[in-house]
Specification:
- With 297 residues, the chain is α/β, with parallel strands linked by helices.
- It has three domains: 8-81, Winged helix-like DNA-binding domain superfamily/Winged helix DNA-binding domain (Arc Repressor Mutant, subunit A, Orthogonal Bundle); 97-168 and 272-292, Periplasmic binding protein-like II (D-Maltodextrin-Binding Protein, domain 2, 3-Layer(aba) Sandwich); 170-268, D-Maltodextrin-Binding Protein, domain 2 (3-Layer(aba) Sandwich).
- 41% of the residues lie in helices and 24% in strands.
- The protein is built from ten helices and ten strands.
- It has helices at 8-20, 23-30, 34-48, 64-87, 108-121, 134-142, 204-215, 229-237, 247-255, 284-292, and strands at 53-56, 59-62, 97-103, 126-132, 148-151, 162-176, 195-198, 221-225, 243-246, 260-277.
- The strands form three sheets. A six-stranded mixed β-sheet has the order 4-3-5-10-6-9, sandwiched between helices.
- Helix 1 packs across helix 2, helix 1 (8-20) crosses helix 3 (34-48) and helix 5 crosses helix 10 (284-292).
- The radius of gyration is 25 Å and the shape is elongated.
- The termini are far apart.
């Protein structure tokens, strides 16, 4: 049987053509002539014995074989990017540019502690923080644009090639400025008709808070939906309404008398997860963060 070797230039050209949707656009991006690209694509199809594209109007559409080939191409080149990233470090025990993704709802004090710990174990590494939704961050992690994700959503990370570690589960309480001190009495019924600030929809905490409010038959005045924890705290400090936070995140504001605790929400909590991608050559900082980083309460 004749041994067939994969031509990575052909595969790269195919991947760019598939991504751009046409040979002309791929030609502009790759700075390679269209006739040459067409010839290279034909060589790849001949070597595979499969047609990878169908022409529809002026665009190229992937065949089923083309879709499968693109999946492999993406995996191959992402693995290549990981290879270069690892071996471009001064040594394999260090990673000087470490990229952490953090859900936008995460308490800033937790983000700061995680960053400081990464710099400590990374021995002067540069840490880049990126905020986003859990879905966006997991996608960036899968594309090797992030090394670690701090998330409040575990379901999106149910993949065999991801390492998921529970960091902590924290109870949620109601907080507000001193203008709302009277709400401490008869809590949670005292929340009736009060201005409330909730997390944005489609988050687990928002669902749990609404379930708690509904179960206690509380009629409230929703004045804002805010995901960023800093913005929520600022609004509460200015007397805009009641917010809901894990106790460790509110503690500095309570100590400074900028917020007061109204009451505990029994049965409502938020869990934080550290998520990393399994790698052929592991990232030592990720390994240490998942193993040793603890929530400072």
């Amino acid at each position: 049987m004749e041994n067939k070797w994969l031509n990575y230039h052909h595969l790269l050209y195919f991947r760019v053509i598939a991504t751009e949707g046409s040979i002309s656009k791929a030609s502009e991006k790759l700075l390679v002539g269209q006739p040459s690209l067409s010839s290279q694509l034909k060589n790849l199809e001949d070597s595979l014995g499969q047609q990878l594209f169908l022409r529809q109007n002026r665009s190229l559409v992937l065949t089923e074989a083309g879709k499968l080939a693109l999946e492999y191409a993406n995996e191959i080149f992402l693995k290549g990017e990981e290879f270069m990233q690892v071996f471009n470090d001064e040594n394999l025990a260090r990673k000087f540019h470490y990229k952490i993704g953090v859900v936008d709802s995460a308490p800033k004090i937790l983000t700061c502690d995680l960053t400081e710990f990464a710099q400590k174990v990374g021995d002067n590494c540069l840490v880049t923080l990126t905020e986003g939704t859990p879905k966006e961050l997991i996608e960036s992690l899968n594309n090797h644009k992030l090394d670690l994700v701090l998330s409040t959503n575990k379901e999106l990370s149910n993949q065999e090639d991801l390492i998921v570690s529970e960091l902590a589960t924290q109870p949620i309480s109601a907080y507000a400025s001193s203008d709302f001190a009277h709400l401490v009495n008869d809590f949670p019924e005292s929340l009736n008709d009060q201005p409330i600030i909730l997390p944005t929809r489609h988050t687990q905490l928002r669902y749990d808070l609404e379930q708690f409010i509904h179960s206690h038959k509380i009629h409230y005045n929703l004045i804002a939906e805010v995901q960023d924890s800093s913005v929520k705290k600022l609004m509460a400090e200015h007397g805009k309404g009641v917010i809901f936070l894990p106790d460790f995140a509110a503690l500095p504001l309570v100590k400074d008398k900028r917020l007061i605790k109204i009451g505990n929400l029994e049965g409502v909590s938020e869990t934080y997860w550290l998520i990393a991608k399994k790698r052929t050559i592991s990232t030592p900082i990720s390994d240490l963060l998942i193993k040793d980083f603890k929530l400072q309460v």
